[in-house]
Amino acid sequence: MTVATEDMTPLNDALAARFAAAQDIAEEAGALALDYFRRRRDLTIEIKGGLQDVVSIADKNVETLIRDRLHTSFPEDGILGEEHGVDQGSSGFTWVVDPIDGTSAFVHGLPSWCVSIALLSGSDLVMGVIRVPCGDESFAAVKGGGATLNGEALRLDSSKTLQNSLTGIGANNAVPPEMIGALITGLMARGGNYIRTGSGAQMLALVAAGRLAGFYEPSMHAWDCLAGYCLVSEAGGSYRPFPVEGAAILEGGPVLAAGPGAFEELSALASESERLLNS
């Protein structure tokens, strides 16, 4: 499925071609991943950094499909993927790919996983596409052109706050449990509540759709967050800067994004928990 761009800010030809291709590739990759999901009992599962950090043959093969399609269409573009590392390019464009964000949910039969594809032009984030196969939802955004869900425009306002909505919280083994505990305590003390789906990319898409007030995770990688960041920004929200230049893109960092009614308060809450970590 390709989302039309006629009503968007005019795109240059190079970006327009990549935007159309990314949406088609995400849908094809999502279909392959969904087929694996339905046959997940037969998958080979490997442990990466810990018992909660897993990867399956589905992750690897879905990323291979995405890379093959991108290399065929745009052979001079670079690609950074979670499973197969970095392929340097010469065009100035770099794709940032997570074939299945939420692998733990995926292998346990939960529907909260997605395919995430972002595009950088130099160090400028210019595109984000997230496909959620189990919900048949396609999120797409291009810089200056807005964000859509299944072709319908997304636009955030200030009505969603930490108090009247849910906030997505992410956690992993790289983050001290005391920090996550303090974060959740602080959120609930403010009258808010939280959800964790197991996919940071999907939760960022839900922020862009106005279903979550915001999202915060103290440590994530570029492939987890960049597509969602583009979606949130183009829907009218804000995000904390993420390092994308040079080797910094491989190191990761904290990820925070929210709509206009929650960004400042969620940022303050995150800063409080980070001070606890550093004290």
Automatic annotation (TrEMBL):
<dbReference type="GO" id="GO:0046872">
    <property type="term" value="F:metal ion binding"/>
</dbReference>
<dbReference type="InterPro" id="IPR020583">
    <property type="entry name" value="Inositol_monoP_metal-BS"/>
</dbReference>
<feature type="binding site">
    <location>
        <position position="224"/>
    </location>
    <ligand>
        <name>Mg(2+)</name>
    </ligand>
</feature>
<keyword id="KW-0378">Hydrolase</keyword>
<feature type="binding site">
    <location>
        <position position="101"/>
    </location>
    <ligand>
        <name>Mg(2+)</name>
    </ligand>
</feature>
<feature type="binding site">
    <location>
        <position position="100"/>
    </location>
    <ligand>
        <name>Mg(2+)</name>
    </ligand>
</feature>
<feature type="binding site">
    <location>
        <position position="98"/>
    </location>
    <ligand>
        <name>Mg(2+)</name>
    </ligand>
</feature>
<dbReference type="GO" id="GO:0007165">
    <property type="term" value="P:signal transduction"/>
</dbReference>
<dbReference type="Pfam" id="PF00459">
    <property type="entry name" value="Inositol_P"/>
</dbReference>
<keyword id="KW-0479">Metal-binding</keyword>
<dbReference type="InterPro" id="IPR000760">
    <property type="entry name" value="Inositol_monophosphatase-like"/>
</dbReference>
<dbReference type="GO" id="GO:0006020">
    <property type="term" value="P:inositol metabolic process"/>
</dbReference>
<keyword id="KW-0460">Magnesium</keyword>
<comment type="similarity">
    <text>Belongs to the inositol monophosphatase superfamily.</text>
</comment>
<feature type="binding site">
    <location>
        <position position="82"/>
    </location>
    <ligand>
        <name>Mg(2+)</name>
    </ligand>
</feature>
<protein>
    <recommendedName>
        <fullName>Inositol-1-monophosphatase</fullName>
        <ecNumber>3.1.3.25</ecNumber>
    </recommendedName>
</protein>
<dbReference type="GO" id="GO:0008934">
    <property type="term" value="F:inositol monophosphate 1-phosphatase activity"/>
</dbReference>
